[in-house]
Amino acid sequence: MKIKIVGAGPGGLYFAALMKQLDPSHEITLYERNPRGATWGFGVVFSDRALEFLKGDDEALYEYLNPHLENWPEITIVHNDTRIPIAGNGFASIGRLELLTLLYAYVEQLGVNIVFDTEINSLEQLGAADLVVGANGAASWIRTENEAAFGTTTDWRPNKFIWYGTTKAFNSLTLTFRETGAGVFCAHHYRYKPDMSTFLVEVEEATWKRAGFETMSPEDTVKYCEEVFAKDLEGHPIISNHSYWRNFPVIWNERWSNGNVVLLGDALRTAHFSIGSGTRLAMEDAVALFKAFKEKGGDIPAALQRFQEMRLPPMKKIWQAANTSIEWYEKMDELVPKLSPVEFAYSYMTRTGRVDHAEMRKRDPGLAAAYEALHPEAAK
Question: In this structure, is residue 13 part of a structural domain?
C-alpha cells in the first residue's frame, strides 16, 4: 500500500510506524512543512496513565520514550498565594521537539521516509496514493477545503492564551490563578526537562482587553506576564518561541474520511489543553486506524469506516470532558474571587464531571475532608 501522510506530528509518525511494522512492504512517506529541528511550543504533558496504551500495541516504543519523560505524582492549584497540592493525579511531560526527534528516529529506522521543509498545499501535489492521512493539525487545509464532506464544525472559544516557556523548573503540573487589576490570570506550567518548563498564560477576553494586550508589543507582553507571576517565577524569565495570543478552536467532524483521505489528531478534533490529552489522543487515533487496517486488510473503505466505529465512543467522551473544562476556565474571573482556596481547588478537580466526591475521597482524602468541613452536606 502506498501511504502518504501530511504532517509529521506524533499521530502521523506513530501511524506510520505501526503500519510499517504490520507490513514492511508498505511504501510510507510523511511530508512536514517545518525543518527537522524546528517546532512550535515547548513541552507536552500526559496523565500518568496516558502512555499505558502503548504497552499493549508497541511496548518497544513505550520503553524507548519512557526514560525521556519528566514525572511527578501530584498537581498543584495556586489560588493567589495559597498553594494546594492534590494527590492522585500523576503526570509525565517531555519537550515537544525532543518527542518529535525521538519519533523521527524511530520511524526512519523502520524504513519510513520523512520529507522535511516541504509545504504540501493540495492533494494533487501529493500524487498517486492508496491512502492519504491528514495529520496536519487544527488548521489542516485538508479539512478546511472539504468541510462539507467531513461535516466540520468549529467553535472559536473566547478566552485568550499564549504559549511561553521559562527556565524555572516547577516540581509539579501547576495551575496558578492570580487576581490583578485587569482580571484573573491563569498560568498552566510544568517542567518538561530539568531546566525548562512550559508556561502557558490564559485570560478571559475582557481581562485581555483591560490589560491592553491588543496593542502591546511582544516584549511588553512578556514583561507584563512576568510581573503578574513574579512570585511564581522567582526571578526566572519567560521565554517566547514565536508566541502569540490566540483563541482555542473546538473542532469536530461528523465524518472522518472522504474517499481515501482520513483525518487524525487535531485535524480530526481538538481537545482543550487543560486536560492534557491532545498528543495522547492523536497517538490513540493512530492505534485505532492501524487496528482497523489490521482487521480489514487492504479494503480501504471498510478500514476507514471501522476506524470511526471503534474510535468514536472513547474519543467523544474525552472531547466532551475537554469542552466542559473550557467552560470552567471561561468563568475564572467569577470563580477566583468567589471561592476559598479549598473550594476553588475542589471546583477545579470536579469541573468535568468525571470526578465526583467519592472519587475525590479516593484521590485526595485531605482535600475531600477540607471541603466537607466547609460543606458538611457533601459528606452525606
Answer: yes
Q: Is residue 190 part of a domain?
A: no
CATH number, domain containing residue 283: 3.50.50.60
| pTM summary value | 0.94
CB 8 within 8 A of CB 104: yes
How far apart (Å, rounded) are the C-alpha atoms in residues 375 and 380? 10
- Domain of residue 273 covers 2-71+93-156+249-328
Please report whether residue 198 resides in a domain: no
Helix residue ranges, H only, the chain:
10-22, 52-65, 96-108, 123-126, 141-144, 147-150, 205-211, 218-228, 230-233, 278-296, 300-329, 332-338, 341-349, 357-363, 365-374
What are 71-129's pLDDT values in tens digits?
888 899 999 999 999 988 778 889 999 999 999 999 999 999 999 999 999 999 999 99
pLDDT confidence tier of residue 49, bands split at 50, 70 and 90: low
pLDDT tens readout for residues 310-320: 999 999 999 99
DSSP state of 274: G
Establish if 131 belongs to a structural domain. Answer: yes
Total domains in the fold of the chain? 1
**Could you read off the pLDDT of 159-177 as tens digits, one per residue?**
999 999 999 999 889 999 9
**340: number of Cβ within 10 Å:** 13
